[in-house]
Amino acid sequence: MTELRQAQLLDGSVPRQVLDARVGELLDIAMKAMATNIAERHATVPESQRGVREYQSHSQSIQLVEHAQGNLKLAQERQDYELYARATYGLQEALALW
After folding, report:
1. How far apart are CA 90 and CA 38, in angstroms?
2. Cβ–Cβ < 8 Å for 87, 68
3. What is the DSSP string of 41-91?
């Protein structure tokens, strides 16, 4: 992960944008499932399920980023290296899930 990307994740500029997009993504999944035109729906149930699973994975990733931001804030306040390490690890795990 680049230092710039990590800094963006930690300062909150990316997660807010991503969180807004996540809500839109869930709505898109639901609207596609309820489309009145059959051609606009998912072709199969597994395809629809895959969209929901991807959404859930991304949501977990966002939660990890938010937790990492909390660890970073505490690390800065306490000058605690272990909390910095936890924040870094949390971001790495979030990117792996994404």
Report:
1. 41
2. yes
3. S-SSHHHHHHHHHHHHHHHHHHHHHHHHHHHHHHHHHHT-HHHHHHHHHHH
Q: In whole angstroms, give the CA distance from residue 15 to residue 86.
A: 18
> Tens digits of per-residue pLDDT, 25-75?
888 888 888 889 999 999 999 999 998 888 888 888 888 999 999 999 999
* pLDDT number for residue 95: 86
Q: Which helix (H) or strand (E) holds 35?
A: none
What is the rounded CA–CA span in Å between residue 56 and residue 98?
10
Angle of helix 45-78 versus helix 13-33 axis, rounded to 10: 160
**pTM over the 0.90 mark:** no
